[in-house]
């Protein structure tokens, strides 16, 4: 099954003030785009690795994925006890990016992801709602949610599922939030990429739910793969059916 078969939704252009990473409190504009309704599943990723052998568990090069890559899969073509419709995880940024490209898509930017993720069932921006943040924080405390199937969380304002409550997700520019000004020339070092830098550019330290996302992203490197980290695709133009 191709990713197109499960659908994408249109996200209308808008602007918002990022709660973290904003040097100033000026809003950023997000141009209109499309995003997958659900994260990519085990069965979908299996079809991808069948067609792209260099991304199979036993064949992927170390520069593109660490040793945890698809760690829960029994072999190149068997995702073990995981459910076909559960999100694929333990996938590196390189593999996620390649998957999206093979679908004629791309990874969402961090601003695009946050823009969609700030919506609850009725509001485009629900970040000030206590119950919304409590829901996100309660998920952070749960274990093994990655074993759940896609589509079991709430459908948000845009018609997107699982932005919270299932898995963390890769973005195309996952660690760019920590690289600005003088730090850009040092981006090969770790000091600006890890969690300790998470609060440097925070515009609202009280929003712990968002802080955790940014801190987690900042702890990643592109070849990392962890059991609670998956992805979904986006597209600038309307996808072909």
TrEMBL record:
Q: Where is the Sulfatase-modifying factor enzyme-like domain?
A: 5-234
Protein name as it appears in the record: Formylglycine-generating enzyme family protein
- Which top-level group of life is the source organism from? Bacteria
Per the UniProt record, the lineage of the source organism begins with:
Bacteria, Pseudomonadati, Bacteroidota, Flavobacteriia, Flavobacteriales
**Pfam families the record matches:** FGE-sulfatase
